[in-house]
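Below is how a single chain appears once it has passed through the pipeline. First comes the sequence as given, then the structure the pipeline wrote out for it. We keep one example in the README because the format questions we get most often are answered faster by looking than by reading.
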Amino acid sequence: MTNVHIVNHTHWDREWYFTSMDCVVLSDQLFSDVLKELKRQPTASFVLDGQLSILDDYLELYPERLTEVKELIANGQLFIGPWYTQTDAFFASGESIIRNAMIGIFDSKKYGSYMPIGYLPDTFGFNAQMPTILNEVGLDNIIFWRGIDLGEQVKSPYFKWTSLSGRGSLYAVNFPQGYGAQQQLEPTSSYVDGRLDRGVDFIKSYANEPEILIPTGNDQLGIVSAIEEKLTKINQLGKYKYQLSTYPAFMEIVRQKELEVYQGEFRAPVFARVHKTIGSVRMDLKREIFRLENKLVLEIEPMLVIAKDLGIELSNRLLMKAWKKLFECQAHDSLAGCVSDSVAQDISHRLKEISEICESIENLILKRISEGLALQANQFLILHPTPVPFQGEKLVKIVSRTNNIKVIGADSSVLEAVYIPSRKNIMEETPAGNRFIEEEGYYLLTVQVTCAFSGLGYQVLTFEEQETTPESSLDQNTWIRNGKYMLSFEDGHLIYSDGKQQILDFLSIIDDSNAGDTYDYSPILNDQPITLRFASCKGKQETLALEGSLQLPYTIEERMKGIATKTFAYTLTLQLTKNGEVNAKLRFKNTLLNHRIQVKARLNKPIERAVAAIQFGYLEKRNQTLENWQEKYAEKPVNIEPFEKQVVVYDQENALVFYSEQSKEYEYIDDSLYVTVLATTDSLGKPDLLYRPGRASGDTTKKGHIMMETPLAQMENYEMVFDFSLRVASTAISEDLLATWKTVKEQPSISYQLQDLNYFIYRIDNKIQKRIDPLSLTDMSLSLLSCSLEPGVGVSALHNAYYSEGIVVRFVNSTNKERPLEPKKLFNGYEYQRINALEEPLEADHIIHAYGVATYLLTKN
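Resulting structure:
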């Protein structure tokens, strides 16, 4: 006899083609019905989609129902959490995913408890390090749907999923038919024979499991009424034994099984679409999400550690407020960008709010420190937000009366000078009253400063204003050289040389059509990509600037007819370092519709494989053949893949290392790496795409639905500045070195100057008033924590403890070799304890496994 476990749930998209406020209205009656039905049926249970935020929204309307909710949770009838929102699992960083679970789990405790399952029923596939991520938040299991190739990757939908290190693992349960295959249970022969029994038959065709899980529910769907009564009737009609169950109860059954083991990601569009090209849509929103998750993890959280040590008390709730708003933007539909324009506007507004919180926290901390140090106008503060020692260049912003300054005791160079002219009739407040003056002109300088830090802290540097120098322009040189490395522009071709080889057309910009929608990029039939040639070149010292302008098709219809009516202008600025690294900046205004822009980087021979940085590790990828793909896949399984800031491609002789924080999508074809800059589209869902034949995604071609235009997803007139870097290396390059390069590139530049020429370099600068008890600091340099780490090991997170006292430090090992940790040396001056991300104590195993993380709680001796 096969026992079929029925679990009642709802999948609650916070926003999609409808807005989050629409969903609050929907939840008013639907969630109220859930509470009523659970009270009426003490044996019934309901899963509130594994995300806490929707319950928070509901109880904001009905705070008086908190006691009732807590009782139902305590009785095992209502299941909430562990997530704050249903996170994307490819394009959110590992730290963002961890924070989502951290805050979801800790906030769930105000209701009593949370569902201890990594429940992600609709996420568009899963990165290979979900076992590492979920283990770090105290979870050892997952329930999911999309991305699995059942029968190839694993035989049964119930299996063991191990991390890349093989040391962490999850009990995994897959929904082969999805979370909505069995919606409202109907005790009729037509439903049981035609749908319910057949669903079980389908699962058993892959694995003859005696215990099978079937969810009943769907998007924004309420609770099944009288479910016990309906199951009694269904058991009289069906050929299997159906019983009411819960996810935790079924997971206990899975734990007792002998399970096959799988290692790797889930990104195969076999039973469901995973939208492999969704990483490029609505890049304006994605870029800001990527920037803000970096801002929070790499800057704001460490700055709050320094601030607290100095006596600047800021509430952790400010930080959590920013994170929660970001999690709302990183829900799978929201981060993917497959949403209506109305929702895109909501996302954009939340991102604006997050940015304001971050910038204001930064402003307040830096000004308080600078005032405490009584800095003069010719001094500036540089803050280093990681305990890893640093020696190199930082970029600082300086306000100066001249365009030329010299930093005392350090190498420096002015990279950019913007003149702000004088203003007349400016009011100045004085003790004797207001007076009107002429405000002198000044320069906003971007200065590169060579400096060194022993660890987490700050230092103060002093500069001297030099005589104003005439503005210089780039020469007519068509080449730049730094040591043995050279970039030259000849006959419209950019050539890279390192003394051993030359690479023709080393970098180029590619434009092609996009007939797809907000779910998938898809070209038009027989489309020929257009290489955006450069017409002119100027160079000076280590900088080369290429410019071009072409007439290109404005619309998809023009492209199909071979007509070009719109001017598209672009510049590519390149800098060459002494180590052979090419730092690049692509600029253009997007004047075209329904198209895609990619950066193309070449090697001399065909690329054989790629190694992409992912969450807490690296994953090798090789292109797969795509013949007869329609016979198996729900969409074309194109060789377009995600990466986390860094991707490396290899030919027989060389490796090409690419780094960017502004895109997470790449592919390689023949001898070239392609990284997506943007892909624009006009619709939320379309049927019969070249890459995705058949029905439209997004419900737009279901009965009664309408097609939804998305003019904002065209990003027309968007001013794009795309920063990236790349270098050519040996094929023998180690993961140690790759991880080191990535860590160095991630280091932010944080500086502040206490000056009165421009209060709006930071928006609230002039509103930060002196406190009753101001700081009094005497040390012009500070080092709170210094950690010299093994090669390939870095600091993934550093923040004040969220729910205890102390500092949390998380290390990441981005290599395939186990590394020892020596806490006594790393944490000199601190008591330490090994913990997980929930700040729960762990056994003191001072080893960081391959592609693993290790978290510590530090307290002052």
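The longest helix spans residues 341-372.

See the next section for the split statistics.
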